[in-house]
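[Meeting: bench + compute handoff]

Bench side (C.D.) handed over the final construct sequence. Compute side (W.E.) agreed to return the predicted structure before the next meeting so the bench team could plan truncations. Sequence as handed over:
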Amino acid sequence: MLRLKNVANGETVECKKAFFRVQAYAYNRRAKRIFKFDIKQPGDYEVIFVNANTLQVKRSNLPIFSSFIKPTSNIKLKVLITEKTGFSPFID
């Protein structure tokens, strides 16, 4: 679960799981859209991971490979927040 908190007023924005978890490439690295959210007020937001220790990052999208390979460590996980939507395989 992911939540965004407005730094100025403390208002939170709940993130919803994306229906289509589209794989893309951002900055020459593989990326995947997991959540989507709607920010109505511009400003600075803090990203809050709820139950971050349960997050699993798998190297493969194929279920057969995912069951044999251990999940990757989520300590060095990078998060990209963009306003781009759709099914494009590249994020600018």
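W.E. noted at the follow-up: The mean pLDDT is 77. C.D. will use this when planning the next construct.
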